[in-house]
Amino acid sequence: MIGIFDSGSGGLTVMRAIREVMPDADIVYFGDTKHAPYGIRSRSELSKLTVAGFRTLTEHGATHIVSACNSVSASLALALLDLSAIPPSSLIEMVGPTVRSVVSGTYGRVALVATEATIGSGLYTEAFEMFDRKIVPIAIPALAGAIEAGEDETTLTAIITEAFSKEVLGTFDTLVLACTHYPLVLPLFERILGPSIRIIDPA
Ligand code: DGL
Q: Is residue 187 reached through a cis peptide bond, with omega within 30 degrees of 0 on the bond before it?
């Protein structure tokens, strides 16, 4: 059984993608809404929540885990996996597959939006540098929490618009949504950035 883990509803965008290729897959989903949003938490807090989340999923029968939360990837030290019943080969997280997919595609100048925890970890920047690629990292600290809280379109539009200063606009032509909550508001990103920006949902 596949266990999917996120701080809340963001991982549903990943579950939707899994369902497209595996319609009959047996899935157990855990959104840790009690502790959401994750993106404002420290690495040590995220480590504890990740171990607890994986345990919840294995207790409910998961044999494989999709960690559908970019913010959690920063806390995914291999040593942590020893604390869960899931071997590394049975775990998929977001960062590695996203970077592999982007560097093997024909994208131009890439910017990446994510939570503060994800951007602050430097994980994406370092991973792209391993392929000699520079990205423009942009944190949108309030967005995942606002989506999770069901804020209205005006509020969400203001949060997204504020993240793209004039200096940043014009430095990229491709935008990676490196928070699984963000594809839930894809139409807002599209409207704010316009048709010249290609938007990637890593799910
Ligand atoms: N959806 C998660 C991510 O991909 C977490 C967002 C949050 O809870 O702040 O980063």
A: no
pLDDT by residue (tens digit) across 116-164? 999 999 999 999 999 999 999 999 999 999 999 999 999 999 999 999 9
Which ligand 1 atom is at minimum distance from the Cα of 182?
Answer: 1
Active site residues: 69, 179
Residue type, 5: F
**How far apart, in whole angstroms, are the C-alpha atoms of residue 117 and residue 111?**
17
Beta bridge partners of 32: none
Query: Ligand 1 pocket: which of 119, 148, 179, 200 to mutate (most atoms <8 Å of CB)?
Result: 179
pTM, to two decimals: 0.95
Q: Which atom of ligand 1 is the closest one to the Cα of 178?
A: 4
182-190 LR contacts (CB < 8 Å, sep 24+): 182/10, 182/113, 182/140, 182/143, 182/144, 182/147, 183/13, 184/9, 184/10, 184/12, 184/13, 184/147, 185/143, 185/147, 185/156, 185/160, 188/153, 188/156, 188/157, 188/160, 189/160
Distance 79 CA to ligand 1 centre (A): 22
